[in-house]
Fold this protein.
Amino acid sequence: MAQSIDKPPYFNGAHYSYWKYMMMPFLQSIDYKLWEIIEDGPAIRRKILCDILIPKERHEWSDQERKLVQLNDKARPRRI
């Protein structure tokens, strides 16, 4: 059975290794960095304030940081 390029590979609860193998290129075709976010965790924007690392406020994000946050949302699982 051929894999659709419009829909992610279906996971039926069995053969996780194969599903993961098929899911990686599917997600990378959307955005290459998307798979990195799934493996490494979400990209959290931070800044140093008084030698303490704290999250940045949304109005402080650069355009590049906004794109990474958008990818975080794409990587988040959705309920069907």
In short: The radius of gyration is 16 Å.
